[in-house]
Specification:
three-stranded antiparallel beta sheet; single chain; signal; TIM Barrel; alpha/beta; binds 2-acetamido-2-deoxy-beta-D-glucopyranose
């Protein structure tokens, strides 16, 4: 094997149009916050395989049962996702922002398609004891390995931004901030960066679940309500989130605090981090009742405008659930991406929303879709094919889970949409294959005949792959 810089040298002029003395590779990478040793040839999953039948590396954890369960999944699918050498192009992509050009996205001058998983629990999880708690590092790293093996480009993660009203939240009580809550979020962002995955982060939830949302702000303003999830009394109380200036101010202060936070592991402020593709004004926002209408366009304009002023290199997704063209939703200029969710998948609904989005010259995102088929709708094959054929369209299935802290049992969640890679049943495995092929298709890549297994725990990373200045011992890996 040639030393890395020699392998990459021919790429340099293509990528950057630079002169190419060998030493410039290192200084180039260093300028991008990357520190790469010549002999680092393993320890990193970066996009697609190759997925060798016989991995050429040795694992530093037991592959027999002995306390670990997950590596056995190789027996069901045949190959392991191998740590692969990132190309210089891959490394540069980690430090580049995804930008919008009309109805499509670009990264380093190439088309960029959003495709990946919803993983809502990366910042705080409710499916573990004690409930809630911050997810373990093993769990977060396994998810990055799975999304990488499935060829995902982006993860949509609610609790990386939605964090209100619990002692473990970023904002446990009105206008107070809990800096401890940032450790798991900083770590998830670090790991996404190392795996070459981008993140889309919603800022507030339309419902009242464990991680909080708009109802915490409403309650803090002294307006009474009760209920969980979407079943809230009185039913129109959610409108106060948009029409009360003290609440809007408090939410804007939260956004400013969150986007200004400096990641303790990377040293990069969230607003300046190319790992973050963008921010969504909220999840499934409706103005009054569930499915009653959009977030008011004036509110979306104000919130999206604040996000753009803080993070001009990031994209903004309108968090409205679906399309309400008569409201003026599509006239909010500062929005980059409009989105809809699919329970069940519906090609007709998708096509209608896509046509509206294209007429507004913006990007379309299927932010959540039901991968299970349990409620009918269009088949997973036909729905993913329609998404692929839609120019610039992106999508995330709902939703990905993995193993517990010890890579042994699956973490169970009760909403009926939990997806486990490479599948816990034959049907789930068949769908995992379709979902993986779909992501390859979105990346304009030939898909693998056999989906790769994902090791849990993931491979140990050479220290050189972490950002300079990070004390890896402090990660507790
Ligand atoms: C892993 O596979 C081996 C060989 O098929 C089997 O003996 C062992 O019981 C498996 N372990 C688990 C945890 O499934
Ligand atoms: C805000 O919305 C609530 C609930 O619909 C409504 O009762 C109230 O009058 C609204 N306030 C303003 C200032 O529009």
């Amino acid at each position: 094997m040639l030393p890395l810089p020699l392998l990459l040298l021919p790429l340099l002029p293509l990528v950057l149009g630079l002169a190419h003395p060998l030493s410039s590779t290192h200084s180039l990478l260093a300028r991008h916050g990357l520190n790469l040793r010549q002999d680092v040839l393993h320890g990193l999953l970066s996009g697609p395989g190759p997925f060798p039948q016989d991995p050429p590396w040795t694992t530093d954890y037991p592959t027999s049962f002995g306390g670990y369960c997950a590596p056995n999944s190789s027996q069901t699918v045949g190959t392991f996702a191998g740590p692969t050498l990132p190309s210089l192009q891959d490394l540069l992509k980690r430090n580049a922002f995804v930008s919008r050009s009309g109805t499509g996205l670009e990264l380093l001058g190439e088309e960029f398609r959003i495709v990946g998983a919803n993983v809502y629990w990366l910042g705080l999880d409710e499916n573990v004891i004690p409930d809630p708690s911050y997810p373990s590092k093993n769990r977060v790293i396994e998810i990055m390995g799975i999304v990488s093996a499935m060829r995902g480009t982006v993860i949509r993660g609610h609790t990386l931004g939605i964090s209100f009203g619990n002692p473990l939240s970023i904002m446990p009580s009105p206008d107070t901030y809990n800096e401890q809550a940032y450790e798991p979020i900083d770590f998830a962002i670090l790991m996404a960066r190392i795996y070459g995955i981008k993140l889309l982060i919603p800022m507030v939830d339309n419902y009242n679940w464990y991680h909080g949302g708009k109802y915490q702000f409403i309650g803090w303003a002294g307006i009474p309500w009760s209920g969980t999830g979407a079943a809230i009394t009185p039913p129109d109380v959610g409108a106060y989130f948009y029409n009360t200036s003290s609440i809007v101010d408090s939410f804007k202060a939260y956004i400013t605090h969150h986007l200004s936070h400096v990641n303790q592991y990377t040293g990069i402020a969230y607003k300046d981090d190319p790992t973050i593709l963008g921010w969504e004004t909220g999840n499934e926002l409706c103005a009054v009742l569930y499915n009653d209408g959009p977030a008011p366009p004036a509110w979306t304009s104000e919130i999206a405008g604040l996000i753009k002023s803080l993070a001009p290199n990031h994209l903004v997704v309108d968090g409205t659930y679906g399309f309400y063209p008569e409201s003026g939703q599509l006239q909010v200029e500062v929005v980059d991406i409009f989105s809809d969710h699919f329970y069940p998948p519906s090609i007709a609904r998708f096509q209608a929303g896509l046509a509206l989005t294209q007429s507004a010259n913006r990007v379309y995102l299927a932010g959540e879709w039901d991968w299970t088929g349990q409620y009918g709708g269009d088949s997973i094959q036909s729905f993913t094919a329609a998404l692929e054929a839609g120019p610039g369209v992106g999508d995330f299935y709902w939703s990905l889970f993995g193993h517990d802290d010890h890579c042994c049992l699956y973490v169970e969640h009760d909403d009926g949409y939990s997806f486990y890679y490479p599948g816990r049943t034959e049907d789930m495995h068949d769908r995992a294959v379709v979902m993986t092929q779909h992501a390859y298709e979105m990346n304009a890549d030939a898909s693998p005949e056999v989906v790769p297994a994902v090791a849990c725990p993931q491979y140990a990373f050479p220290d050189e792959l972490f950002p300079p200045g990070l004390n890896v011992a402090n990660l507790g890996l």
